[in-house]
TrEMBL record, chain A:
Lineage: Bacteria, Bacillati, Bacillota, Bacilli, Lactobacillales
Native source species: Liquorilactobacillus ghanensis DSM 18630
Protein name: ABC-type dipeptide oligopeptide nickel transport system, ATPase component
Classification via SMART domains: AAA
NCBIfam families: oligo_HPY
UniProt keyword annotation of Repeat present: no
GO biological process: peptide transport
UniProtKB/TrEMBL annotation, chain B:
Organism the protein comes from: Liquorilactobacillus ghanensis DSM 18630
GO CC terms: plasma membrane
PANTHER family, sorted: DIPEPTIDE TRANSPORT SYSTEM PERMEASE PROTEIN DPPB-RELATED
Protein name per UniProt: Oligopeptide ABC superfamily ATP binding cassette transporter, membrane protein
Gene3D superfamilies on file: MetI-like
Any Pfam family hit: BPD_transp_1_N
ABC transmembrane type-1 domain: residues covered: 95-305
Its membrane topology: Multi-pass membrane protein
């Protein structure tokens, strides 16, 4: 492990208790996040991206959640920490940006108080210094009139503004690791680009590592350095942005890329991945979890217990079926 | 904000006029009259007709209504047929008793309900929560007057812990003696009333706390590293109490309704008891005055709720 590795996730599985039984939402995740790097985690809804993020943040109710493996952050295993120890890390060394800026802020507290709250627990600053820092942060995240915004309540701000405030909260204590869980999903396209630029800028200034969770491949191509593609709770392919976009191997990655509208192919119908991500209770015990959605690939092509295969430096793919994978012959009207 | 309050008060004027007409008509539509049975039993129907006539009870309703309103504006609510006393005096004496009992019940209600609701919400699914839920469901299922009668029977008659009638004992003397006696008389009806009225607040608060617990802004607070205790104090409880605070104004309505049961069963000399007695005597002047008063208090309660909400919830800033 190099010095630059901030977060090292080893064999991480998280299960939720549903009607008395535990079901795995993410299984056997191995990931590293380095300083000065943006790692994107991509996948459909329900594939476990957010579960991974909230597990790292320790935001699950321990009564109904079970996590195994290791989440080593700056040399300490987060999974072994108690609440008091965890609270020293959360907000201070790991900041999180949430998906829905409309609901992630307390509707009854002024913006300033929501930003200074995180400093209350992690810094020794005086009230005055905290207020000044809050204004500074609002300025940093691109809010034009910080004094005014600081006095306002969340409902008085637009979605983009609120997301900026949430980012300000997440970076208030200059965390080493920033987790952004679909930070742009609830925003319109023009604001999306601004928010991504902001995250990138902050990451470069603080030399932090970023986990960017998204289902938007455009966002990945634009922002990330490394990419991990998740399907049904597992990582199916992992590599640098170039490797994933130029040489996608896993059928799921290829299907995802094919499902993105292209500006230069207006006549094509979009590729649709048939079926759904299996629910936790219906998750197959073994075999390739993506196999049911590519039924034309013979079952012999899949491994019985798919493992990650190292193909080139940093590029890994799960299962052997990628070797036999081709898109089916298109029905009439669809150009291959 | 003041403009809005003024506007709301102005809107209340037509509401009160409409209410007064309705109240007046309903009182008039009741069968019976205030004189049969209350005068010399040997008097014939002729005498009753005579009394009805000189009291203006055979006039057309709009004329009676108009006379009533004119008197009302002169501060004259009329004479009670039953007590031969001015209605204003009559209500004035009882209003104080009802006010004390209602205030006492309200304070007890919130003292019981707030900790219960918060505890149940925070420790959702645990044994104490289950017990609290059973308590709320059972109490909710029992009619209020049954609770009162059974309570009165057990604690008043069988155990003999509390007085069973009145608002003050005849032998009470001195300043502190009077207060203590008043308090002693309010204790049982107040407790039973509170036992009943906590139910709604407990259930409401419990579900508010559970909602808040799972909200995104609480997740944000956790991600900030805020300790659990502080999360409850600064985020969950505060936000859950908001609708309860707004409820406060409306609870006036509930207390007035409750006073009708409580006071009749405990023979507590307040407005509720007066109301029930007046209805059985067809004491029109008292009934109309009381219903109008209850109606106005209800409207004020609603206004109060809106004002409270406007103050505590920044999203509902009244401009």
């Amino acid at each position: 492990m190099s010095d630059q590795t901030l977060l090292n996730i080893k064999n991480l599985s998280t299960s939720f208790k549903i009607e008395g039984e535990f079901y795995e939402a993410i299984s056997q995740i191995n990931l590293q996040v380095k300083r000065d790097q943006i790692l994107a985690i991509v996948g459909e809804s329900g594939c476990g991206k957010s579960t991974l993020a909230t597990t790292v943040m320790g935001l699950h109710d321990p009564a109904i959640t079970k996590s195994t493996g290791q989440v080593v952050f700056e040399g300490q295993d987060l999974l072994k920490m108690n609440e008091v120890q965890y609270n020293k890390i959360r907000g201070a060394k790991i900041g999180m940006i949430f998906q829905d800026p409309l609901s992630a802020l307390n509707p009854l507290k002024k913006i300033k108080d929501q930003i200074t709250e995180v400093m209350d627990y992690h810094t020794q600053l005086t009230e005055k210094q905290k207020s000044e820092r809050a204004l500074e942060l609002l300025q940093d995240v691109g809010i034009d009139n910080p004094q005014r915004t600081a006095r306002q309540f969340p409902h008085e701000l637009s979605g983009g503004m609120r997301q900026r405030v949430i980012i300000a909260i997440a970076i208030a204590c200059k965390p080493d690791l920033l987790i952004a869980d679909e930070p742009t999903t609830a925003l319109d396209v023009t604001i999306q680009a601004q928010i991504l630029d902001l995250i990138r800028k902050i990451q470069q200034e603080n030399h932090s590592g970023v986990i960017l969770i998204t289902h938007d491949l455009g966002v990945v191509a634009q922002t990330a350095d490394e990419v991990a593609v998740m399907y049904a709770g597992q990582i199916v392919e992992q590599g640098t942005v170039q490797q994933i976009f130029e040489n996608p191997l896993h059928p799921y990655t290829r299907s995802l890329l094919r499902s993105v509208p292209q500006a230069d192919s207006e006549n094509d119908e979009l590729y649709v991945i048939a079926g759904n991500v299996p629910s936790l209770q219906q998750m197959p015990k073994d075999g390739d979890r993506f196999a049911p959605r590519i039924p034309w690939v013979p079952s012999s092509a899949h491994e019985k217990h798919p493992t990650m295969h190292q193909l080139s430096a940093g590029h890994q793919v799960r299962c052997t079926c990628y070797q036999n994978f081709n898109f089916p012959v298109a029905p009439k009207g669809v150009r291959q | 904000m003041w403009k809005v309050i003024l506007r709301r008060v102005l809107i209340m004027i037509p509401e009160i006029i409409l209410l007064s007409i309705l109240v007046f008509l309903l009182a008039k539509m009741m069968p019976g009259d205030p004189f049969t049975g209350s005068i010399n039993p040997r008097a014939g129907t002729a005498e009753i007709h005579h009394l009805m006539r000189i009291n203006g009870l055979y006039d057309p309703w709009y004329q009676q209504y108009w006379n009533w309103i004119v008197h009302l504006f002169h501060g004259n609510l009329g004479q009670s047929y039953q007590y031969h006393e001015s209605v204003a005096n009559l209500i004035g004496q009882r209003a104080e008793n009802t006010l004390w009992l209602s205030l006492f019940t309200m304070v007890l209600t919130y003292l019981i309900a707030l900790p219960m609701g918060m505890y149940a919400g925070r420790h959702e699914g645990k044994l104490p929560d289950t017990i609290i839920r059973i308590y709320t469901y059972v109490t909710y299922c029992i009619p209020f007057f049954v609770i009162l009668v059974v309570g009165l029977w057990i604690f008043g008659y069988v155990l003999n812990w509390f007085p069973t009638t009145g608002s003050i004992s005849a032998t009470a003397s001195g300043f502190s003696g009077t207060i203590l006696s008043r308090f002693y008389h309010m204790l049982l009806p107040g407790l039973l009333g509170a036992l009943f009225s906590t139910v709604n607040i407990v259930q409401y608060l419990r579900s508010e706390v559970i909602d808040a617990k799972r909200s995104d802004y609480v997740k944000t607070a956790r991600a900030k590293g805020v300790p659990e205790k502080a999360i409850y104090r600064h985020h969950i409880f505060r936000n859950s109490l908001l609708p309860i605070a707004a409820f406060g104004g409306y609870s006036i309505t509930g207390l007035l309704n409750g006073s009708i049961f409580t006071e009749s069963i405990f023979s507590y000399p307040g407005m509720g008891l007066l109301f029930v007695n007046s209805i059985s005597y067809r004491d029109y002047t008292v009934i109309t005055a009381l219903v109008l008063l209850f109606g106005i208090l209800n409207l004020l309660g609603t206004l109060l709720s809106d004002i409270i909400l406007g103050i505590v919830d920044p999203r509902i800033r009244i401009k």
